[in-house]
């Protein structure tokens, strides 16, 4: 297992990325800083056993949680993203498959090329409610990667083939559990909120501005970040409030500056989210996390 933090050199995570056919790794820990990783020339499939973290894939920032499967094709920029809005914890099994071997599999299994899903485009599958037990499959792949000595990679190749078929089957039967990446509208809305969250903006304001119904707007946020639009705005405001409190700004002034109409509603939201009061936050030296 690998813990990423400011004292851990990036080379420790990169490891040996010379992938002949298949390699399976296990990473867990807390992320304190954005962790950048260059795009590579092989396929990467991540299974989140237990995670509460943001992940940037191309232009998209995604929320990863338990049971999510993240598919990253070759030559796609991606990295973990540190955020005050989440705990930044990750327990992830990573499968690396060489481009050459993956192409062989796709050519051998012509049926996969004719389903309504493609491994050649980035996507995230939400499998937490699935009965297919991916939470067993990925750890098993990791365990067998060293079980059979020199034959481990050969065994792993066969097991990966079965897993890819299982993932493809889930993707075609549960289309509502797939997040399509690069939704330009939701990215634009998030960017606007990030710039104006301290203003008196509401769901209705955003609905009018972007010519989209409130229900559709919330649906976009649920698919993108697994939270509602209102929850995203509140998380941004509360995260900023922590910074202002520790900068010595009076509590009532903080509430007003981050967009709350009155101190009582700010206090309740702060206490419900962080389980401590603003005064306790000021007294603490450690990071406050929801």
Structure description:
- With 290 residues, this protein is an alpha+beta fold.
- It has two domains: 10-180, Jelly Rolls, CATH 2.60.120; 184-283, Homeodomain-like (Arc Repressor Mutant, subunit A), CATH 1.10.10.
- The protein is 42% helix and 20% strand.
- The chain contains eleven helices and ten strands.
- The protein has helices at residues 10-14, 99-108, 134-144, 152-173, 184-196, 203-209, 214-225, 229-246, 251-257, 263-274, 278-283; strands spanning 22-30, 35-37, 42-48, 52-57, 60-65, 68-72, 78-81, 89-98, 123-126, 178-180.
- The strands form two sheets. A six-stranded antiparallel sheet has the order 1-8-3-6-9-10. Strands 2-7-4-5 form a four-stranded antiparallel sheet, with no helix packed on it.
- This is AraC family transcriptional regulator.
- Pfam families: AraC_binding, HTH_18.
- GO terms for molecular function: DNA-binding transcription factor activity; sequence-specific DNA binding.
The CATH topology of the largest domain is Jelly Rolls
- Distance N terminus to C terminus? 25 Å
The CATH H-level homologous superfamily of the largest domain: Regulatory protein AraC
User: Would you tell me the structural class of the helices and strands?
Assistant: alpha+beta
Count of distinct structural domains: 2
Helix content: 40-55%
Low-confidence stretches: 1-16
Briefly, what CATH class of the largest domain? Mainly Beta
In DSSP terms (H or I, runs of 4 or more residues), the helix count works out at 11
Average pLDDT value? 82
Beta-strand content: 15-25%
Largest sheet descriptor: 6 strands, antiparallel
Strand order of the largest sheet: 1-8-3-6-9-10
Q: How many beta strands in the DSSP annotation?
A: 10
Radius of gyration, in Å, reads 21 Å
Under the CATH scheme, the architecture of the largest domain is Sandwich
The arrangement of helices and strands along the chain is HEEEEEEEEHEHHEHHHHHHH
What's the shape? elongated
């Amino acid at each position: 297992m690998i813990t990423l933090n400011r004292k851990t050199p990036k080379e420790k995570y990169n490891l040996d990325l010379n992938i002949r056919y298949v390699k399976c790794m296990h990473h867990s820990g807390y992320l304190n800083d954005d962790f950048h990783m260059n795009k590579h020339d092989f396929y990467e499939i991540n299974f989140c056993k237990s995670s509460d973290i943001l992940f940037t894939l191309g232009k998209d920032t995604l929320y990863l949680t338990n049971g999510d499967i993240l598919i990253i094709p070759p030559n796609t920029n991606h990295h973990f993203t540190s955020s005050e809005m989440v705990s930044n914890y990750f327990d992830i099994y990573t499968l690396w498959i060489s481009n050459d071997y993956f192409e062989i599999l796709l050519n051998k299994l012509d049926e996969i090329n004719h389903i309504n899903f493609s491994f050649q485009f980035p996507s995230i599958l939400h499998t937490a409610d699935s009965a297919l037990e991916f939470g067993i499959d990925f750890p098993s792949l990791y365990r067998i990667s060293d079980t059979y000595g020199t034959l481990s990679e050969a065994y792993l190749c066969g097991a990966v083939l079965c897993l890819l078929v299982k993932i493809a089957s889930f993707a075609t039967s549960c289309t509502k559990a797939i997040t399509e990446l690069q939704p330009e509208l939701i990215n634009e809305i998030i960017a606007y909120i990030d710039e104006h969250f301290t203003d008196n903006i509401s769901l209705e304001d955003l609905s009018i501005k972007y010519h989209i119904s409130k229900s559709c707007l919330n649906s976009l946020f649920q698919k993108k970040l697994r939270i509602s639009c209102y929850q995203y705005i509140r998380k941004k405001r509360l995260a900023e409030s922590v910074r202002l409190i520790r900068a010595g700004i009076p509590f009532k002034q903080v509430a007003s500056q981050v967009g709350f109409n009155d101190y009582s509603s700010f206090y309740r939201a702060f206490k419900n989210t962080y389980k401590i009061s603003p005064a306790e936050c000021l007294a603490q030296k450690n990071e406050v996390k929801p």
